[in-house]
């Protein structure tokens, strides 16, 4: 940043102060004349003021300035300095004392930087001590032991000159056994802003007060009606509890005139904690217990932002630079930024009861290039908060210009001052570090005010997530600034609308100018590819649900969180979060699936094949389309074609089967694929593939089977007729046997009995032709009749066919005739 290197530009001091100081100089002239002749006198600083050189073991004692009050004194004040001195050497320091040293007025902002950088360096020049009565003595300083000091001096005795910034130092002088003479053994330089009266031209200062945190909520929610939110850990409860970082931010910011910059994700997360919520604890989740803490923090925040300007970042504070450099060529990435912007009013307004501004985009560290500006404004913002170490002055301006810069396309860059914005970075846990940061901030602000008599608007954009100690230092500095005499507070919107300096640069740097240290921490392209794939899965899932909001909201916000700037420097944690979201979504979509099928056998020309869809979600799904496809339709057709589709809906916790009609054209094995589709024709879930073994029945086979059936019928008819004949013969044999028995019984009355009955047609006739047999019949017939009635003799021949049973023949029994 260009600045006034050799001139001040401030107005003259009031007449009464000039008269008082002139009188003091005249009265002290003899004393000053004697001091000039001291051997230790020398230039105090590069500006030609008297100094004292350090000797020998300089730097063996550490000097810490823990407090300096007031930070910006005015007439009549008493400056009190307290802190510690610690002997870090090996020898005891004797005849030691702590003294105060006032250097010359500092004319440039770069000189402030140089003094702050070498604040404890004894190799440079050192200003002389003020009156010896404003010191604290120690008989000895034992190695490793810290000694406290507290020195107060009236401002009038400091004999400050014109309004401006002065170097102010605390030193420890003493001697050691090795070097038994007085020398400066330790020093700490800081600054004393001096503007006792109202400045003729004040600087309008805008201070941003960021409420931003890391990601705390998971995509997972409970299966109950309320969808109980699940937190990754209990860290957010610690941050908003008394003493926590975010609790301090609200408490400190309440009494400051600042512009609040909030992340809707933080508000939504704390709001979720006011009801029932769960916290992951290893492989399980436990019930959250910090509802009262969350309610109190939100109540305090609502009170703090009342009647204050509130700027809302997109949901989860997306990393604009990472998106611009690595995500714009990934389909859907810019839509994620738009969705993160669209939910602002549905989140911030109901929780804070204020209407936030959504016109501002804030890239990480205010570092911009043309691609970042393009992405930042793609979701509707027309103002980009940049920083002066990114949008650097190139025209040689001898002062810091106002923040607003038109950069083309209707976009305004609001350029924060880099020195003021970075004043509270680093470890400020020690009181001495915090005090130095506050004094440096005030010194830079006053030096900026004195650069020119033109009024300017300046913006302070600190780090996004200041620690508790950093927040306390920021608040202390802003309280001093807002209670001072050279600055007045201004809202960010007013700073953006202020008249731009026509000499200020408006050229946005190219992408090659983006700091390499920041680029190394960006989200990689693979992160945006994974986000896009998860979004695609979510889109497929939503359309099949009866209540898509149960997944659209938690997963939509989880995808916003995957792009958060808070992942910078935490690549492994970011990758783990993305994988967790994807795995959980895949698990939900997998609860609606096709049941696996084993090989199916198909006999005949046609049959039906059932395919089952299972829904293990608590809500209904559908309409889905189930398609069954034959990979070999010449062998197996589905409803007379290659495939068939049928709609299906399944109630929560149930399964549903769909039957498909198939027809076989040839024997063999055919592969069939079942696949679910959404109503818009996109595949849903994994397909199920199974084989159908076809056994086709041809015309020849039908003839063979028909012939076999005919043979069986004929064989049965033949068996029936044979059994009927056998039964008739048995009946005839029984009748003959009965007749023979009767004949035998009649033979006891005489052989002529038959002849006595002339009417008996069977009676034998006497005559020579009948003499061949004893009964008047031929011998052969007579013999046959005799055997029929006589008992069977052992010598009789066996009959040709035994008597047959009338029962059905046994299975497989063969009957021959």
From TrEMBL:
Keyword Chloroplast in record: no
Annotated PROSITE patterns: TONB_DEPENDENT_REC_1 (PS00430)
Parts of the chain that traverse the membrane: 697-717
Feature: compositional bias, Basic and acidic residues: 730-744, 774-790
Biased composition (Acidic residues): 754-769
Alphabetic keyword roster: Membrane, Transmembrane, Transmembrane helix
Pfam families registered for this protein in UniProt: DUF6049
Keyword Transmembrane on entry: yes
Region (Disordered): 497-516, 730-817
UniProt cross-references to InterPro entries, sorted A to Z: DUF6049, Ig-like_fold, TonB_box_CS
Protein name per UniProt: DUF6049 family protein
UniProt organism field: Streptomyces vinaceusdrappus
Taxonomic lineage from the root: Bacteria, Bacillati, Actinomycetota, Actinomycetes, Kitasatosporales
